[in-house]
């Protein structure tokens, strides 16, 4: 009798402030956690389940009613398939060239337009047009220009450059230039990616250039440094961080590119990248397990890149 009353009082006591804060925090973050769970966690778990099981599109209605047979056959077939390694090599080459080109072009444009001149705002606005242009509109422009029958590129080439016949830029695997085989269609999609993504690099680098103190360059000029020395020894070292970040982001984004390449070539002419390989396995062959395995192997490459970037970033912080 003497102990019942205190227990009753403890049950009736209002929660403390910290408990109320915890409860309110959980209530506020619950919608976000629910969205993340539905949009990210569950699809990722399903991809892992599909990758380690033999499931095709026709098996979807029976999913959950029959036990899953776990297997590594999807990965064995993928790693033993020469087309996988060819697609991986094409993807790495495409992502590397597009990354170097987009960051390099953005850097050159940012340095060239750094000093004020009349009409600089208009030039900057025109440079951003390829980036804000819808992908389907940009693809249509390029397909029209490169068309073998009525494209302006072939017309100029045959009229002024002496081309014996029209060139199918979007379906020719290789073209020999002075006896050297050139992966023509792959270079076209790389140039398209550079054209559309270089403005973003230009914006990033221009924003960082605003933080470079003019007094340092003025002091270097007073000490006798010329423009090339100021650029290479003062300006570029301060852009190293943003350039590394851009290289990583551009590589990750181009490594996953699908819509641009599919709309331009549909994978013809040696442009079968990993994302198109996943699409082919899923839609053409209706093999969900194989497509999921290809997707996971793509993720492994990207995760490795992220780990390298995090290690480099942490090392830089430790040095600072």
Provide a quick synopsis of the model.
With 320 residues, the protein is mainly α. 71% of the residues lie in helices and 2% in strands.
Topology:
Elements (H helix, E strand, L loop, with lengths): L3 H9 L4 H35 L21 H7 L2 H31 L7 H8 L1 H4 L2 H11 L6 H9 L14 E3 L2 E3 L1 H26 L4 H9 L4 H12 L1 H16 L3 H6 L9 H11 L3 H32 L1
Antiparallel strand pairs: 1-2
Helix pairs in contact: 2-15, 3-15, 4-9, 4-12, 9-12, 10-11, 12-15, 14-15
Q: What keywords describe this structure?
A:
single chain, disordered N terminus, globular, 15 helices, 320 residues, mainly alpha
Description:
By secondary structure, the chain is an all-alpha fold. Helix content is 71%, strand content 2%. The chain contains 15 helices and 2 strands. It has a two-stranded antiparallel sheet. A hairpin with a 2-residue loop joins β1 and β2 (180-182). Mean pLDDT is 85; it is low at 1-5.
**Count of runs of 4 or more consecutive helical residues:** 15
Strand composition percent: under 5%
The radius of gyration is 28 Å
The averaged pLDDT comes out at 85
SS elements, strand count: 2
């Amino acid at each position: 009798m003497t102990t019942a009353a205190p227990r009753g009082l403890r049950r009736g006591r209002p929660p403390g402030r910290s408990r109320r804060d915890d409860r309110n925090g959980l209530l506020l973050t619950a919608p976000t956690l629910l969205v993340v769970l539905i949009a990210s966690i569950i699809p990722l778990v399903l991809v892992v389940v599909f990758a380690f099981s033999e499931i095709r599109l026709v098996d979807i209605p029976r999913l959950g009613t029959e036990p899953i047979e776990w297997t590594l056959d999807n990965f064995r077939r993928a790693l033993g398939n020469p087309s996988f390694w060819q697609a991986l090599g094409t993807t790495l080459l495409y992502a590397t060239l597009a990354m170097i080109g987009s960051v390099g072009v953005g850097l050159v444009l940012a340095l060239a337009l750094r000093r004020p001149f009349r009409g600089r705002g208009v030039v900057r606005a025109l440079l951003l047009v390829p980036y804000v242009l819808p992908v389907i509109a940009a693809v249509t422009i390029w397909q029209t220009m490169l068309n073998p029958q009525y494209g302006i590129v072939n017309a100029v080439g045959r009229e002024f450059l002496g081309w014996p016949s029209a060139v199918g830029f979007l379906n020719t695997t290789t073209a020999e230039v002075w006896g050297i085989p050139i992966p023509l269609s792959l270079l076209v999609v790389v140039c398209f990616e550079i054209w559309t993504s270089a403005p973003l690099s230009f914006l990033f680098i221009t924003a960082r250039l605003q933080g470079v103190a003019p007094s340092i360059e003025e002091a270097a000029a007073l000490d006798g440094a010329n423009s090339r020395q100021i650029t290479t020894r003062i300006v570029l070292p301060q852009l190293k961080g943003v350039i590394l970040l851009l290289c990583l982001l551009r590589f990750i984004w181009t490594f996953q590119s699908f819509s641009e390449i599919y709309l331009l070539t549909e994978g013809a002419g040696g442009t079968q990248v990993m994302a198109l390989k996943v699409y082919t396995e899923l839609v053409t062959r209706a093999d969900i397990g194989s497509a999921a395995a290809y997707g996971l192997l793509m993720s492994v490459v990207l995760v490795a890149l992220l780990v390298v970037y995090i290690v480099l970033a942490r090392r830089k912080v430790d040095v600072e």
